[in-house]
Each structure stands twice: as C-alpha cells, then as structure tokens.
Amino acid sequence: MSARCGLAALSTSANSIRINGNPTVDPGWVVSAGGIDSWLAQHTDAEIHEYMTGLTDPFASLTTPTPSPNPTATYTCVPGTTSTRGDYRTKTDIAYTYWKGANSNNATTQVTYTGTGSHTNVTGSWPVTWQTNQTLTTGVVNGVASPGVSTTTWSASSLSGSGANRIWEKVVTTVTTEYRNVVTTTTTTQATLNQGTYTGGFDVGCTTVMNPGIYVINGGRLKITGQYQVTGAGILIILKNGAYIDFTGGSNVTLTAASSAQLQSVGGLTSTQAGQLAWMLVFEDRNSTGTNNRNRINGNNSTTLNGKIYLPKSDVTFNGTANVTSACLLIAAAQITLEGNTNMTSFCPSGMTNTDEVSHGNASVKLVA
C-alpha cells in the first residue's frame, strides 16, 4: 500500500492498526490514538506515532442522511433475454399438380391435367416495401430464409373422373422471406437497483448496476463476491443497525461516490448536507451497533473504489488490491487490519490529494485509514 500522505486510526486499542501476513506498505506517516503493529516500524521507513492525543475525527459533525424519496427496496436478479429485430419482406409461390386415385389419401399417380378447374403455377415477386424494425424469430440472419415455409393442400373436391380415375388437385404454397438489418441482442441476468432502504441488506447474485442515489442498508450485509460485475456511479451507501460490507472474491467491482450535485438532485439532500457528504462512498450510522471482524475489502486488480469509507463503530480488514480512478480512497474506521498480501499502489489518482485531517501540528495527516 503506497499512500505517502499517511495512515491513521482513531482507536485507543493497543491493536488499532494491525498487520497480518506480509503486505506491501509504504504509507509515509502512521499515527494512531492507540497501538501500532511493530511490523510497520520493522518493514517500512514510515514515521510512526502511536498513543497520540489530540487526534480528531474529521467526520464527527456529519449526521446520517435520509434519502428522499426513500422507498422500501429489494434486490432481484432479472433473467437475461435474447431478442432479434430487423426488416423483412416475403413472396409467395404456388405450384399445382394433379393426381389420380379413388380419394385424396391414396391418389398417388401424378398426371397431366389441363381440363376444367386446372390452374397455372404462380411465381411470386418481392414487394418494394419492407416491413421495418420488426421482432423476428431468434436465429434469423441477413439474407433469404431457406427453404422457406411450405404448405400443402388438396382441393376440396375432385376435378373430374370417378373411382380409380378420379383427378385431384394438389396445391403447394411456398412463402419465402428475405431479411436485412438483422440485429440480435442478448442481455445478461442482471439486477438494476435504485435509491431506497434495503432491510436485511443483500448478497449480489448476478451482474448488478446501482443507479445514482443513496442506499440504506438497514441491518444485515452488503456482500459482493464471486464472478459478478458490480458497478455503481454516484452512490452513497448508509450502514444502519449493525449492517456491514463484505467485498470479497474476484468480482469486477467499480463503485464511485456521489458528488454534491448528485446527492441533491437524486438523494434529495440539502445543499449543506450534500456538500458535507460529497464523495462519501460508505457511511456508518453512529447509532449502529457496529460489527466485529465483519467489514472486509478483499479485492483484486479489477476492484475500483472511489470515495471515502467511514466506519466509526466498526473495524475493517483489507486483503488484496484495489484501484482508484477518479477520487481518493479514504478509509476511517474504529480499527484497521492489513492482511495477507495487501498491495495498494495508491490511495489517490495521480495529481489528486485529500484534505481531511485528523491532527494539527507535526503529525498532521491528510489521509485517514
């Protein structure tokens, strides 16, 4: 983890910042109101300050927002579909043949007949006008459908003769269809989420899109794991009543916090509150019971988290890697554990800094983790 602007924890615990495993860490500053794992002093050149007084919570004045509107919401995966649309036109060919036999079922001998009731074959032509942008049968491609659609009928009565010499007319109608501009669209099984309260949380079970807005996780967990792609741009996640986050596994996760303008236009917050909570990705309600060893971020190179994660009542464990692309990843928690082979190349995109401070003076740090 390379974060030259600092690593800090406000917990007074003797293990406020813990190291399990052998992470890649180069934080510059490490400060805490409690104890700091000796691994950092032994394996980095960081300036270590533990059991410090005067550290402050930069988000202490923030209150838990309530989105407006705030409907009761549920997580549902909608099965994917495949549909085909395009243009088509048809032509119809009619062929007449004549058969001899006592009845139509056993008339097996084809004959030449030009007498009363006989017909001349009809060769159809393509119409100039196409039926455009129509729903088509799945599997249709551009070109002429082959062999076309054929229907066969016998005339209702014989044309001439009697007994074994009775003549029957057999009609073969062939409809051929031509297609152009055929486009087949396949959608994956997907959950599309909107702002609201998700009581009991949810486990991601398919490709998931979180539309801009404020998501209240009222108890339970928000779990992202497995092979599913999860994207959310312009979102704020609120954890209440012991709710926690569990971002683990090989998911392709890209979550970006909401701007002040999005929190106002979609979330329904006042301009003052929206400004205070801008770029906050995860916010734990101070009235929550908190959690122990439950908040986890175990990402990989396809995990992108843009924004601040604030867990004043709970701990958080990092294991793996994560990317940032558009906003600094700032983490404030009651206790922090860096575990396994944690390797974070940067907390902030190139050229960007974070201005939140937890102390003033020689140990001032602008990144809270």
Tell me what the structure shows.
The chain has 2 domains: 60-79 and 187-340, no CATH class; 82-186, no CATH class. The chain has 369 residues and is mainly beta. Strand 5 (82-100) and strand 6 form a beta hairpin. The N and C termini lie close together (11 Å). The protein has helices at residues 38-43, 260-265, 271-277, and strands spanning 7-9, 17-21, 29-32, 47-49, 82-100, 109-111, 131-136, 143-144, 149-154, 167-186, 190-193, 196-203, 207-210, 213-224, 229-240, 244-247, 252-257, 280-284, 296-297, 303-318, 329-340. The longest helix is centred in the C-terminal third of the chain and has 7 residues, at 271-277. The model is unreliable at 1-5 and 361-369 (pLDDT under 50). The radius of gyration is 35 Å and the shape is rod-shaped. The protein is built from 3 helices and 21 strands. Strands 2, 11, 12, 13, 14, 15, 16, 17, 18, 19, 20 and 21 form a 12-stranded parallel β-sheet that branches. Strands 5, 6, 7, 8, 9 and 10 form a 6-stranded antiparallel β-sheet that branches.
